[in-house]
Design goal:
Layout lengths: L14 E5 L5 H13 L15 E5 L10 H4 L1 E5 L6 E5 H7 L2 H9 L6 H7 L2 E3 L13 E3 L2
C-alpha cells in the first residue's frame, strides 16, 4: 500500500466560517487550528499546507470558563528594560477582541515557516460583519 502525499496543485481550499459567540476560547481555537492546518481533511500531509481559509466572527463574544477572564495574563515584552507589559483578558477584550482568538490559535500552530503561512489564512472579526461573503463560506457550529 502506497502512502498518499498531497501536492500543492492538487489542494482545494475552501472558506470556513466559525461563529465564536458563546463558545469557549480553547474549544473553538482547536477547531480553527485544525481547519487551518488541514487536519480535518483525509488528504492531510504534515509538510504541505492543505488547510482551508478560516473566517471567525463575533470574536468579542467568545467566553473563558471559570475566572480566566480576570486571572489570565497576556504578557508583552519590548526587549528593553522596563518594557514588560501584563494585561488581563478583560483588558485585551476591551482594546482588541480579535487578539484573544488569534493568540489562542497561534499557540496551537507549528512555529515555523509552514505554521506562519497557515496562520495567514485566518481572518478574525469582532462583530458579525465580514468582507468574505463573496467566497460563500461554509458555516461550522461549535
Amino acid at each position: 500500500m502506497k502512502t498518499y502525499l498531497a501536492k500543492n496543485d492538487e489542494i482545494k481550499r475552501e472558506y470556513i466560517l466559525f461563529d465564536a459567540s458563546e463558545a469557549p476560547v480553547g474549544r473553538i481555537a482547536v477547531r480553527i487550528a485544525n481547519a487551518l492546518r488541514g487536519k480535518d481533511k483525509p488528504t492531510y500531509t504534515p509538510h504541505v499546507d492543505t488547510g482551508n481559509f478560516v473566517v471567525v466572527i463575533n470574536a468579542s463574544q467568545a467566553v473563558f470558563t471559570g475566572k480566566k477572564s480576570k486571572n489570565k495574563k497576556y504578557v508583552n515584552f519590548s526587549g528593553y528594560r522596563g518594557g514588560l507589559k501584563e494585561q488581563t483578558a478583560e483588558q485585551i477584550r476591551e482594546k482588541d477582541p480579535e487578539r484573544i482568538i488569534q493568540d489562542a490559535v497561534w499557540g496551537m500552530m507549528p512555529h515555523g515557516r509552514l505554521g506562519r503561512a497557515q496562520f495567514r489564512k485566518l481572518k478574525v472579526y469582532a462583530g458579525s460583519e465580514h468582507p468574505h461573503e463573496a467566497q460563500n463560506p461554509t458555516k461550522v457550529t461549535v
